[in-house]
Automatic annotation (TrEMBL):
Gene Ontology BP annotations: carbohydrate metabolic process
PANTHER family recorded: ALPHA-FUCOSIDASE A, ALPHA-L-FUCOSIDASE 2
Keyword DNA repair included in the entry's annotation: no
Designated name of the protein: Glycoside hydrolase family 95 protein
Signal peptide: 1-22
Domain Glycosyl hydrolase family 95 catalytic residues, every copy: 307-727
Lineage: Eukaryota, Fungi, Dikarya, Ascomycota, Pezizomycotina
Pfam families: Glyco_hyd_65N_2 (PF14498), Glyco_hydro_95_cat (PF22124)
Keyword flag Hydrolase: yes
Organism domain of life: Eukaryota
Length: 801
């Protein structure tokens, strides 16, 4: 299997078609209902900081989040273990396995742990800017411009002064910036950082000349909780007089004749340090007091002019946002309609291509805003939570959700923002997960389960159906492999990607068992639970598919990364040859989710019309490749009718993603992506539209329970992955197949998107393409690098660049 180096020369030919207009989310009413802010506000961030502007004109507030601000963990209890037991438990495994092989199902009661001290992501506080101007009705508008990443509010007061408040969160300067401009003299301004959810034992607002701040702690202790600090500074403070109301920590900027513009920066941090999540640091995760960092980052930012700050933000933001463009027709003339109206009237019978392209752009904005190389990865709510205790702790669920957050990254040119994700796994998963592997499984390498916090929680929680999920890291390894596949960065592979892959591979090589139920000579996982569904059993399809892909990839990547241990590679190769590949048919010709016998009279498992939310057994079809890819080492389902039909049968059986167990957005966009890979435009587009109709609310965010909170960001991110899968099928991994790869353009482009185009679509092997399609959605032209790549349309007809 020879790896072919592809020179990275990106030559994007100029596009003939006119670019679409910059998209904005906008509203003519302010977001003033605090308990509904998550369905009204437009979100901003710079990776580490998240901002949700709300409030009425003259009484503006911005909810601020900091990526690492979590209660619990070692900051909550000194005996915190990341969910690991105090003694070895792997000795129970052989009994558990025997029982399961004899009885087909069983339990892992002896391995289960607790959620003790797990903690929750929590809000830092609000930046409040009060100037009590009385608004002239009908002059208000707030908007988030997805071309600039800047949120703007405009209104006029009753005496005729016009105001513009703009907010941006800058990655280069690591602060958010609020700027108020008026064409008259600014009124007196009262500025404060506040946390109204806790009292002064836990947080205090403070102020001094030209600044105001908030200092807090997640618990008084002992042990002392996590410390957090935010500071607001006036840009160019030397020229502006301020007054400090010490009791309330309020900085007052008096009305000063001729002062028509004021800019402030806000920076924040905590004493969390993810590099202290290992045995050498006693898993303390405790770093320096944030005061010094926050003082210096805000002083530095405030020393620039506001136009410099804005320009530095634009250079950074637009480099990322403009790396990819989807241009769809605005057939309903929606670009001038208020955003909440667009979502309110959206229905799955008609759709609205403008809304669909808006959500694609918003998805990329949200990822750029919640995940950067110096931040923690995007969590269940991205970066945005207005509460002290978030739903599911706003943690990292890794049996679909964390993965889905990154579905849109590589192909839209945001591969680099994932460095925080790699560091998160290296620093917080590997050290504790190495212990978990030893204690629970007697295994080398490392392992994580379904739910992870920022404190290295890698143990198994208390309920097997969702907690017995040691496959989460194996799934994440798809993202690691993909990062190399798209970036071709050999340095990164050797330093970062391969060590992660190797640890997970070592773990799984040690865990596979010869199938003693079917005695078919294959190797299977035992025990396993398919994510959040069914019994504890053996040979769960989902795990088998994940391991098929992991091992096959390792055989290519090991030699590339100069793996010195040839016995390790041989072991992978032998194990792979005996591995059950996770494709068995149900009696009704769907894909089996479990390798369980299927009694003729009663379909206890794998029964028809089981509308469960997860599509775990179709993982190898999408997002995985083990079923779908025609590469020689996979099952070649992309061109195999048996597999395609089984996937389609399972998808029909699974329903449209509104079963009694959940009516969430992520299950719908996953279904859509699977249909797209089957070239089924009608089903793919329906599921996409159905997700918007059912789950996306007036500010473009996706809710978990129909249109009701909790907010869970995965469907916003998964939306991008789904649109991308309707545009391109790029499933032949570089180095895995023949000499020439085939990429299918336009597998599922609906005619409603007719005459659209896309620019900057990354393909495997490095490089990007642009292409467009005709009124029927059939791709008609392609430009870009295509060395070694053959582009075909949906009918298999070659499209020559
Ligand atoms: C504010 O939002 C909450 C939650 O959606 C809702 O129950 C309440 O009625 C809203 N209040 C007002 C005044 O609209
Ligand atoms: C830590 O100590 C508390 C209080 O004694 C106890 O309830 C908890 O179970 C302990 N946690 C662990 C992981 O041992
Ligand atoms: C769980 O499995 C163990 C064997 O691993 C067995 O001893 C125990 O009885 C089982 N418990 C239940 C409730 O089935
Ligand atoms: C299978 O389950 C039965 C209880 O139904 C139990 O008695 C038996 O020990 C189990 N088999 C094994 C090998 O544990
Ligand atoms: C606006 O607030 C200032 C204090 O910040 C107060 O002196 C003034 O009376 C207020 N004006 C109105 C119209 O409420
Ligand atoms: C400020 O702008 C508003 C709206 O354009 C206008 O009506 C008003 O006259 C302007 N005021 C001044 C002082 O220029
Ligand atoms: C302040 O909060 C702490 C911690 O939640 C609590 O123990 C204390 O009673 C509160 N004090 C007041 C005055 O509410
Ligand atoms: C807030 O101030 C009070 C009074 O000075 C002090 O007791 C408390 O410890 C402070 N809280 C924090 C989190 O610094
Ligand atoms: C490749 O990866 C290395 C190590 O992570 C990084 O420093 C470098 O910037 C990457 N190169 C490119 C072109 O992204
Ligand atoms: C499954 O659902 C479909 C559509 O509702 C129905 O036609 C079919 O009869 C059902 N099949 C079974 C086995 O329940
Ligand atoms: C299609 O896939 C199935 C399942 O892997 C396999 O048994 C069959 O031989 C394949 N058919 C062809 C034509 O390759
Ligand atoms: C989808 O189209 C591609 C390209 O023509 C083809 O190779 C593939 O087999 C098709 N899949 C299905 C399910 O028809």
């Amino acid at each position: 299997m020879m790896y072919r180096f592809i020179n990275l020369i990106i030559t994007l030919a100029p596009l003939a078609t006119v670019l679409c207009n910059a998209k904005v989310l906008w509203s003519s009413t302010s977001a003033t209902n605090y308990s509904n802010i998550i369905r009204e506000a437009y979100l901003l961030g710079n990776g580490r900081l998240g901002a949700m502007p709300f409030g009425s004109p003259g009484n503006e507030k911005i909810v601020l989040n900091v990526d690492s601000l979590w209660a619990g963990g070692p900051f909550g209890a000194t005996n915190y273990t990341g969910g690991n037991p105090s003694e070895e438990k792997y000795t129970y495994l052989s009994g558990i396995r025997d029982w399961i092989f004899q009885n087909t199902t069983g339990n892992v009661s002896q391995l289960l742990g607790k959620s003790d001290g797990y903690g929750s992501y929590q809000v830092m506080g609000n930046l409040s800017v009060l100037h009590n101007a009385t608004m002239m009705p009908g002059t208000y508008r707030r908007q988030l411009d997805l071309d600039t990443g800047i949120h703007t509010t405009v209104f006029s007061d009753v005496v005729g002064n016009a105001f513009t408040a703009s907010i941006l969160c800058s990655y280069p300067d690591q602060v958010c910036i609020y700027q108020l401009d008026s064409n008259g003299t600014l009124p007196e301004l009262s500025i404060r950082l506040e946390n109204q959810l806790v009292n002064s034992t836990l947080a205090n607002s403070t102020c001094g000349h030209g600044y105001t701040g908030l200092t807090g702690i997640t618990q008084v202790g002992p042990p002392e909780g996590m410390r957090y600090e935010g500071v607001v500074r006036i840009v160019g403070a030397g020229n502006i007089s301020t007054r400090c109301d010490e009791e309330r920590g309020l900085m007052v900027v008096p009305r000063t004749s001729g002062l028509r513009s004021l800019s402030i920066v806000v920076g924040a941090g905590t004493n969390y340090d993810q590099t202290k999540g290992n045995a050498a640091s006693n898993f303390s995760f405790r770093g320096d007091d944030p005061a010094e960092y926050v003082q210096s980052v805000t002083s530095e930012a405030a020393s620039h002019s506001s136009s410099q700050l804005r320009q530095r933000h634009l250079n950074d933001y637009q480099r990322l946002s403009s790396a990819f463009t989807l241009d769809l027709p605005d057939s309903d003339n929606s670009s001038n309609v208020e955003t909440s109206v667009l979502f309110g009237r959206y229905d799955s019978n008609n759709g609205d291509p403008y809304v669909e392209s808006l959500l694609l752009d918003y998805s990329r904005h949200l990822l750029i805003s919640s995940s950067r190389d110096n931040s923690l990865p995007a969590n269940l709510q991205g970066r945005w939570s207005p509460d002290l205790a978030a739903a599911w702790s706003a943690d990292y669920h890794a049996n679909i959700n964390l993965q889905m957050n990154y579905w849109g990254a590589e192909q839209t040119g945001l591969g680099e923002i994932q460095h925080g994700l790699w560091r998160y796994m290296q620093d917080t998963w590997v050290p504790r997960g190495t212990e978990t592997a030893k204690l629970l499984y007697g295994a080398p390498g490392w392992v994580t389960h379904d739910e992870m916090n920022v404190f290295g929680h890698t143990g198994m929680k208390e309920d097997a159906q969702w907690a017995n999920y040691p496959a989460s890291a194996a799934w994440m390894m798809q993202h690691v492999t993909d990062h190399f596949s798209y970036s071709q960065n050999m340095t990164w592979l050797k330093e970062t990607g391969y060590p992660l892959l190797k640890g997970v591979t070592q773990f799984w090589l040690s865990q596979l068992q010869e199938d003693r139920y079917w005695n078919d000579g294959t190797l299977v996982v035992n025990p396993c639970n398919s994510p959040e569904h069914g019994p504890t059993t053996f040979g769960c399809t989902h795990y088998q598919q994940l391991l098929h892909q992991l091992f096959a990839n390792m055989l290519v990547l090991g030699p590339l990364a100069s793996e010195p241990d040839s016995a390790f590679i041989t072991n992978i190769s032998i194990t792979l040859s005996r591995l059950d590949k996770g494709f068995h048919l149900t009696s009704w010709d769907g894909v089996k989710e479990w390798k369980l016998p299927d009694p003729e009279d009663s379909q206890v498992y794998d029964f028809q019309n089981d509308t469960h939310r997860h599509l775990s057994h179709l993982w190898g079809w999408y997002p995985g490749l083990s079923l779908s890819s025609p590469s020689a080492s996979f099952l070649s389902g992309y061109t195999n009718r048996t597999i395609q039909d089984a996937v389609a049968t399972s998808l029909y059986s699974r329903g449209i993603g509104n079963g009694p167990d959940a009516n969430s957005g992520w299950e719908k966009v996953w279904r859509s992506a699977c249909w797209a890979r089957l070239n089924n435009t009608e089903r793919a587009y329906f599921e996409l539209k159905y997700a918007i109709e059912q789950n996306f609310v007036g500010n473009g965010l996706s809710m978990y329970s129909g249109k009701n909170p909790p907010f869970q960001i995965d469907a916003n991110f998964g939306f991008a992955g789904t649109v991308l899968s309707m545009l391109v099928v790029d499933v032949e991994e570089v180095g895995m197949g023949g000499d020439e790869r085939t990429v299918v353009l336009g597998p599922a482009i609906p005619k409603e998107w007719g005459n659209g185009s896309v620019k900057g679509f990354r393909i495997r092997g490095g490089g990007a393409v642009s292409f467009g399609w005709d009124a029927d959605g059939k791709v008609s032209w392609v430009k870009g690098d295509n060395e070694g790549v053959r582009f075909v349309d949906k009918d298999g007809k070659e499209i020559v660049a």
